[in-house]
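Known limitations

Structure tokens in this collection are predictions and should be treated as such. Users comparing against experimental data should check residue numbering before alignment. To illustrate the layout, the record for Putative spermidine/putrescine transport system substrate-binding protein is reproduced below. The input appears on top and the generated tokens appear beneath it.
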Amino acid sequence: MTLTRTNTDRRSARTVMVRPAVVASAAVLLVACSGAEATNGGLESDTVVVADYGGTTREARQEAFLTPFADEFGVRTVSADAAPSKLSLFVENERAEWDLIDLDNWDLYRFAEQGLLEPLSDDVAASDMVPEEFQEYASGGYNASTGIGYRTDSGDEPRGWADFFDTDRFPGQRALPSFAYFQAEAALLADGVACEDLYPLDFDRAFDKLDEIRDDVLFYDSFGQAMQYLAQDSVAMTITPNGRISALRDQGSPVAFQWEGGLYSWTTPAVPKFAQHEDAAMALIDQMADPEAQAAFAEMTRYGPMNSEALEHLDDDVVQDLPNSHLDVSCEIDGAGLGADMDEYNQRYLEWAAGE
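Generated tokens:
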């Protein structure tokens, strides 16, 4: 992937490149390209379909991004459940069901390499915290730290991943996802591997380390379920994104998040190939990169902005609750490295979780 946009300044007035949606009829496509009158704030499309993973981020996205976008452009916004495996089918069928999909940085790398994503138009403002090698396909979105969520009434504070795996000094069950989500990285860091040496992942070493706590593991199928386990004192610790712990803490539960060694990653809206409302998708991503909109999302979720200007619109206590303020003690995930390992990761972790 190559960097195509380097300007991170917002424009004083939004100008959106009008691209026609992919249509079956060449005649209709010709009319769209030849200057058919645009409606909806300069857009041809009257709808945009956004695929995500539900939960608290969907609710916050609706309030911070989708509703203001609909009000400004008169475009109907529709939320759908994301299934990234469908992206290849969209290319085969030359028709996508969604116009945007939330992708983690490692999936963005994989799917862009496979030619399943549309590069962003030059009219979409860049986000300065998106690494240059990804900016051709990514802007806006949010960052998260995946680390140790723990009960503060269970004894000493765990100081890092080694403590997560030490059930003698820190007794109690550990909640792990039933799906592959940074368990191998946590195990390798606990076993002494440096952050910069994580990839390619040494799966044999990682699963040997995970075997040490296998009898103390309670699996969860969603982050919401993990928070239930923690709130009910069914587990002493869990692997979880930081925003989930912030929400549970604010509800009064005796929980905290350990930033030391947190696995920093980011998620971005991306446009599938053959999106039917590509012009609206590009305009929405542009709005999702706006610093004030990013600040609103961060305040609601405690996931960090990818436009650092957003931090200027937040109170200090909120900023300190974001991954942006803890980068010095975090381990940044190599999206390309993890993306290359992901197929084997998924298979081996599912086998390990099933006891095979």
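For this record: The first helix runs from residue 26 to 33. The chain has two domains: 47-143+266-322, 144-265+331-354. Please report discrepancies through the issue tracker.
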